[in-house]
Amino acid sequence: MTSSDHIPDYPVTSVGFEARYPGPSEEEMTDEQKKIRDAIVATRKRTGLSGPFGPWLAVPAIAEPAQALGRACRYGTSLSFKESELVILLTGAKTKSHAEFDIHVGEALRAGWSLDFIQAIPRDDEFSLQKVKSVLVPMLEDEREKAIALFTAELVDSYTVSDETYETTKKVMGGKDSVLVEIVSISGYYTYVAYTLNVFRIPSASGPASSAGKRKREDDEGKA
Question: Please, are residues 63 and 53 in contact by the beta-carbon 8 Å criterion?
Fold first, then answer.
């Protein structure tokens, strides 16, 4: 086993409620929906239609490209797994998506983030660019991670970034505008995921936490 297989239990907040709309039932699905469902499940054998995929499946013309975009944002960029998880957690924190945040805590721990760092991320109404600057950035040593944190925090907090932030981040990323496209795309996609989870009240993919309010590492495979 690698060290990433040994992650601590962590508190979750996206439990104790039922989905408003989990998506069409088996009986309601058209042949087209079943085909898309099968394609999603084939790549998500442990989690199936967890997360946003159930509601999206109600509209096949949305579900199919959304799945493809998510796969590209998660696995097809130049960002490391650790860097991507930083973008996702900041996005989930700002959008008040407890399900998205809970799901990706496990992934962030596997990617190399410490639980102390994750728990220091300001969330919900406490989130602000200033808090990210004052609390999170001092905890980072890697210049790319600092730049990504500041760029993402400014983006989700103000819906754009300043010229200074753009140019500074671009310089740290080796002068590549394409990396900024990737950061914006990951944050944008996971904002869409967050809106879906929030509106349809989708709980964490793995269901209830243990009696101690902790998520076991075996149970948090529900990656959106």
Answer: yes
**Which two three-digit tokens encode residue 194?**
């967050």
Q: Which amino acid is at 72?
A: A
**What's the pLDDT tens digit per position in 70-119?**
999 989 999 999 999 999 999 999 999 999 999 899 999 999 999 999 99
> Burial code of 11-21, b = ≥16 C-beta within 10 A, e = fewer?
ebebbeeeeee
Give CA angle at 180 (134, 84), nearest 5°: 65
CA distance 99 to 222: 10
Using alpha carbons, select from 158, 150, 114 the residue that is nearest to residue 132: 150
Q: Which residues contact 30 (CB under 8 A, 6 or more apart)?
A: 60
Contacts of 94 (CB under 8 A, 6+ apart): 127, 153, 156, 157
Amino acid residing at 179: V
CA–centroid distance for 159 within its chain:
17
The H-or-E segment that residue 221 falls in is none
CA 132, 134, 137, 140 torsion-angle sign: negative
State which amino acid sits at residue 171: K
Angstrom distance (rounded) from CA 112 to CA 85: 10
Are the C-beta atoms of residues 224 and 51 closer than 8 Å to each other? yes
Transcribe 73-135 into DSSP letters: HHHSSSS-HHHHHHHHHHHHHHTT-HHHHHHHHHHHHHHT--HHHHHHS--GGG--HHHIIII
The predicted structure's pLDDT at residue 86? 98
